[in-house]
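User: Structure please.
Assistant: Input sequence and predicted structure:
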Amino acid sequence: MTATTSQRLFDAIDVTWPAANRRMLGPWCLRDGRGGGKRVSATTLAADFAPEDVKDAEAAMIESGQSPLFMVRNNETALDQALEARSYTVIDPTVVLTCPVTRLTDIAVPRLATFEIWEPLAIMVEIWAKGGIEAERLSVMYRAPTKTAIFARWNQRPAGTGFVATDGHVAMVHAVEVLEAQRRQGVAGWIMRAAAHWAARQDASVLAVLCTQANTPALALYSALGFRETATYHYRRKTD
């Protein structure tokens, strides 16, 4: 498996779950998410900064109609402290998990259990909507250059869906959603394996997924599949 650094994974997040627009302002990378969620709207640090530089990013986000939001990655301790001093609180601590693609392609997905489909079917859109993944996040998926969606059926009924895209040797899975009546039956695991089989055909060697630390059932699933923590991040936004 090709060595994959934390920075390489953060680069892959930007490619596989892309903002509508990104621009540089001094040491900051600012994103326009157009309602697609925190990941495509948060400002990140791209160079050395001074604590007083935070106000420039704040002003730019406010001017563009966005509430100030920063993503703090791995060991960006100075940024974390600067934001805390300006009354920013931590939200959604998240882990970036990875495993070799080959770890999940060792067995075949059961026939008719999953389908690779792009563009998404109406039933897939409905399943995502039940999980709060609506039109703005679907627009994020459409912006990714190399991607597919996975549709899962179980017990001869629609069961779940997910999205996977590649950036070089990294394939990243996003937006896995399983219908409540079909949970705890292994559906999410088959979606991940189907994503790995697709990734292998794109010559990807690493499969990655993002999971909040609060989502303990998903973390247990990914651990059982062989995923390991490779990077971390959290967001900070102002309490007022």
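The first helix runs from residue 6 to 16.
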